[in-house]
Design brief:
2 copies of one chain form a homodimer. Chain A has 10 helices and 18 strands. The first copy, chain A, has helices spanning 8-16, 28-41, 57-65, 75-83, 100-108, 119-128, 157-169, 189-207, 232-247, 260-263; strands spanning 23-26, 45-50, 69-72, 91-93, 113-116, 133-137, 145-147, 173-178, 183-185, 214-216, 253-256, 267-277, 286-290, 310-312, 321-327, 336-346, 354-358, 379-382. In chain A, the strands form 3 sheets. In chain A, strands 1, 12, 13, 14, 15, 16, 17 and 18 form an 8-stranded mixed sheet that branches. Chain A is elongated. The two termini of chain A are 26 Å apart. Chains A and B meet through helix 4, helix 6 and strand 12 of A and helix 4, helix 6 and strand 12 of B. Chains A, B: Keywords: Lyase, Pyridoxal phosphate.
């Protein structure tokens, strides 16, 4: 199991601090280096950090200081960014589903960039955020992502073309298209397929006299969990090549919205083994129950979508291992983390042992329930 | 669509109170009448309300006043019950997965009844809650439940027999067995099957001189969502008959742990339509996005497990309807409520319309995330 996510700083932090409940620690140096690596790999892109991945104020401030812009999913995230001194022009309201009152508030707060993917949303933006920049999200094929995006977001390319034209009549500024190939997307070829669909619209609209200035490539840059994933340099190279192939010298301004890539492997959760048991004497697989589960931070273990590397504190790497089923502490039977995937943990594992769940910096804290079964939400330190 | 869950009180409450965010209202009279109906249907049983279903203090106080005992999943729930004046002897620590520190605390607070399903847990209870009553959860077949319980809880009957015997040597008081046929269990015959497995152990242990005093039938009493479910009187009758069939005159003291049945149909959520859209002009199904989703209270819509009745405020029953896909407001594509099940909503539905999600009193508030995408957790009023 390849890990490499426990930085010296995180190791020292957990050595010096003990927690009664599961705790996530984020290495801000790693956040910054991830940002810089991505910026180097795709120098033509402006990076809009997807605040929803982890909205800890220290993460946002760290990224602000090194030049990030921000993609906000809600008015709460917009207000949080503004409260940290992030200028409104660096914030995009990227959710295609926005309440009317939230659009009004955002506009009053100075936000001038809005996503949409439907006629009703476009009408709302036109009347509540007049004159703003708008970009239309389109549906692209996203097979190959570990956490795929279904059809919840985006419209057909035909509809996108019509709505961008309409936005002009509504007094808005159509700046381009956005798409998302799915979070943790590991098939580089998907970018190429998507860009082919996208370029057709840019070409069509140009022929009608409308120059779209911007192309939003979304997120989907992967964090290395257990499986091998291509390096970010490989990603950047392939993306640049695909952009060159489809747009040539007329490439629009590129925006990317990474979340997981920036914070995923910058975080490690320390948790505790609550119980090790067998359902009957003959069973080889032990059940290992942790004090963290689906409802207290590990929602992305649903359907075993994300397979975090797990290590046991104080156990040598050559400890004798055996197969386990991993589950959370709640009385809910859905709260099973890994049953099919063959996790191996030490044979002498017992109640009270501390474990580390690696690469858990993204989509953990805010997914926590407020207190399902009375268990507290996941706490977090940024160091 | 049969509903019948919007009581006059709830209707008046929502007519008089307006909320910017989704809001759950609980009719305490309905909570009390559900409790009384269950008590009448199964008069031989002591009712331990499953606090996890909805831990609102007013619900707990209401149930305390009419004679309920309480099943707690965590030390937090135990402390909450005690803070409301519920005596320790009326509280059972029903989670089979307990931290050592939590067992110690519970014992100090006077809790003397503990669930277990494994040797390690039994050892922990013996050393940290010496002399306490213990009951062993066994695995029973639970096909037919809408929200089934997998194999996370319970051990084999062979193991249960051995552990109950062992508990005596450890200085504990083995009081019996517990099992759970799955929440929202609608096949009455499952109770009969389970009791057959259970009775064998009572008989065996009696032959070894150990009289188990208690039998915990768990929960699983259903709330009527969309589908027809048997009445609680039918349930009670079948259960009583099954107990009589298997235990005859030697029936142990019966405990039940209802959660959903007590609070499910006592609650209604009022939420708002944020967006109505189509992905392309030809699509018949509209996408309807609400300001509540999987991560803000409707976790039981995962895999469309629970199908809540939904109505639109201010629309006549004979409004023209059309098929919809229902989704939550977050940027997460998993946050789709109903895509396969054919929900029908008015053809003139639009952003800003208020909707009611019925029978949502159980497993909603505490499942809410602390703030995924910046959306606030579900708030609740008890009236």
């Amino acid at each position: 199991m390849s890990i490499g996510t426990l930085t010296t700083k995180l190791d020292a932090f957990f050595a010096q601090n003990s927690f009664d409940e599961p705790h996530l620690a984020i290495d801000l140096d790693k956040v910054a280096s991830n940002f810089k690596n991505l910026a180097s790999a795709l120098p033509e892109a402006s990076i809009y950090y997807a605040v929803k991945a982890n909205p800890e104020p220290q993460i946002l401030s760290c990224l602000k200081d090194i030049g990030s812009c921000f993609d906000a999913a809600s008015i709460t995230e917009i207000k949080l960014c503004l409260s940290l001194g992030i200028p409104a022009k660096s914030i995009s309201f990227g959710n295609t589903i926005k309440k009317q009152g939230d659009i009004s508030q955002a506009f009053t707060l100075g936000i001038r960039s809005y996503a949409f993917d439907s006629e009703e949303e476009l009408q709302k933006i036109a009347s509540l955020a007049p004159g703003s920049d708008v970009y239309c999200r389109v549906l692209v094929d996203c097979a190959g992502a570990d956490w795929p995006l279904s059809h919840k977001f985006g419209c057909s390319t035909t509809m996108a073309r019509g709505l961008l034209l309409k936005s002009i009549n509504l007094g808005l500024q159509p700046i381009g298209l956005s798409f998302h190939v799915g979070s943790q997307q590991t098939q580089i070829s998907q970018w190429d397929n998507a860009l082919e669909q996208i370029h057709d619209i840019y070409k069509d609209l140009k022929e009608q006299g409308i120059e779209l200035s911007t192309l939003n490539l979304g997120g989907g840059f992967p964090t290395a969990y257990n499986a091998h994933v291509p390096s970010i340099a490989q990603y950047g190279g392939s993306l640049s090549a695909a952009l060159e192939k489809h747009f040539g010298d007329n490439c629009p301004k590129i925006i990317i919205e990474p979340g997981r890539y920036i914070v995923g492997d910058a975080g490690v959760i320390e948790a505790e083994v609550v119980l090790v048991s067998r359902k009957n004497a003959e069973e080889e697989k032990r059940w290992v129950y942790l004090d963290i589960g689906i409802f207290s931070g590990l929602a992305e273990c649903l359907d075993e979508a994300i397979k975090y590397p797990i290590t046991v504190v104080g156990k040598e790497a050559d400890t004798n291992l055996g197969p386990v089923i991993l589950a959370g502490p709640s009385c809910d039977s859905v709260d099973v983390l890994y049953e099919k995937f063959n996790y191996q943990l030490p044979l002498d594992l017992k109640s009270g042992d501390k474990i580390r769940i690696h690469a858990t910096g993204a989509y953990t804290t805010t997914y926590s329930s407020v207190g399902f079964n009375g268990f507290p939400p996941l706490s977090c330190s940024c160091i």
